[in-house]
TrEMBL record:
EC number: 2.7.7.87
Record's protein name: Threonylcarbamoyl-AMP synthase
Amino-acid positions noted as binding L-threonine in the UniProt annotation, renumbered to this chain: T40, H72, R127, A147, S187
Residues involved in ATP binding: R63, N67, T123, S149, S157, R201, Y236
Occurrences of domain YrdC-like (ranges): 18-205
Originating organism: Phreatobacter oligotrophus
Enzyme class: transferase
An example molecular function term from Gene Ontology annotations: ATP binding
Catalytic activity: L-threonine + hydrogencarbonate + ATP = L-threonylcarbamoyladenylate + diphosphate + H2O
């Protein structure tokens, strides 16, 4: 990733012919970053099952915090295998996929979506896009592809390959140039987690069309039930107390370490990245937190993590996990 960040000619513009799609799919399967058109906006794709590849999305976008990402697959059947769909969720899937609808459902056992792509949640956001280029690429990749909008954090979503390159040239492996996208607004997000489906974000599929399929009004997302972008009130948070920037863990405290110089600890120790690699640390973050949370008798001490690059998002997540909760 560092090499790519320095080389402004590293991003290939690929055609939508068979050779272009094959090259894009190969790159995705090798852990690369490939932007591609969907019927909403251009997405920045990475293998959703590969935490390192997902970490690279955050590095390329310069996103200062981890949000759950949508996993894209080519077919309704592939999506149904990745989640636990209740009757409403399955009806919505069959009515609107392929199309601009994202369904948030509990992840199926063994689905393998990396916990960084889920921001540590037990749920997964799934979508089957209808754009023919997205369809071809997802079919060729043969695995779920995490794909937030292909722009730098804080910039507007791209609807052409030129927009993508304006923001990300030299930071990603390739963009598949499929011309201008049609809708330009993002997917509608509906959570089906037992009980009434909840509208998390309005988007390409109108609320009325969804309500017609489920035969009742959508619940608005409010307060603690909210799992919407940015708000994420029910984001994964460890039970154990966290202390940040600790060089000397207290007796019995678990230690979330980073880098080579790890202090002596008498509690359980897990290292986010012994070599001090922030992408590896991001990929390990949620899994290590969960493991230490289950093992920790008296809290988790976290070693200092540098604040640059992906470190900003890692520190943001840890600071939120350490904040007092009501
Ligand atoms: P986008 O900005 O189009 O990439 O959509 C990302 C948004 O999808 C996130 O900010 C969440 O609101 C939503 N999302 C994806 N996965 C989940 C999930 N597992 N739980 C809740 N929301 C999710
Ligand atoms: Mg965006």
């Amino acid at each position: 990733m560092d090499d790519k960040l320095k080389d402004p000619s590293a991003t290939k513009r690929l055609r939508t012919d068979a050779a272009g799609i094959a090259a894009a799919a190969d790159s995705l399967r090798a852990g690369g970053l490939v932007a591609f058109p969907t019927e909403t906006v251009y997405g920045l794709g990475a293998d959703a099952t590969d935490g390192r590849a997902v970490a690279a999305i955050y590095a390329a976008k310069g996103r200062p915090s981890f949000n759950p990402l949508i996993a894209h697959v080519a077919t309704v059947e592939a999506a149904l295998a990745l989640g636990e769909f209740d009757a409403d969720a399955e009806a919505l899937a069959r009515a609107f996929w392929p199309g601009p609808l994202t369904l948030v459902v509990p992840m199926a056992a063994g689905a393998g979506i990396s916990d960084l792509a889920r921001a540590g949640l037990d749920t997964v956001g799934l979508r089957v896009p209808s754009h023919p280029v997205a369809q071809a690429l997802l079919t060729a990749a043969g695995r779920p592809i995490a794909a937030p909008s292909a722009n730098r954090s804080g910039h507007v979503s791209p609807t052409t390959a030129d927009h993508v390159l304006d923001d990300l040239d030299g930071r990603i492996d390739a963009v598949v140039d499929g011309g201008a996208t049609e809708v330009g607004v993002e997917s509608t997000i509906v959570a089906c987690l037992g009980g009434a489906p909840v509208l998390l974000r309005p988007g390409g599929v109108p609320r009325e069309a969804i309500e017609k399929v489920i035969g009742r009004p959508l619940t608005a997302s409010t307060g603690e039930a909210t799992i919407a972008p940015g708000m994420l009130a029910s984001h994964y948070a460890p039970q154990a107390g966290l202390r940040l920037d600790v060089m000397a863990p207290a007796p019995g405290e678990a230690l979330l370490a980073f880098g080579r110089d790890v202090p002596v600890a008498d509690g359980p120790v897990l290292n986010l990245s012994p070599s001090g690699d922030l992408a590896e640390a991001a990929a390990n973050l949620f899994g290590h937190l969960r493991t230490l949370d289950a093992a920790a008798a008296c809290g988790i001490a976290v070693m200092p993590i540098p604040g640059e690059g992906l470190g900003e998002a890692i520190r943001d997540r840890l600071a939120r996990a350490a904040a007092p909760r009501s």
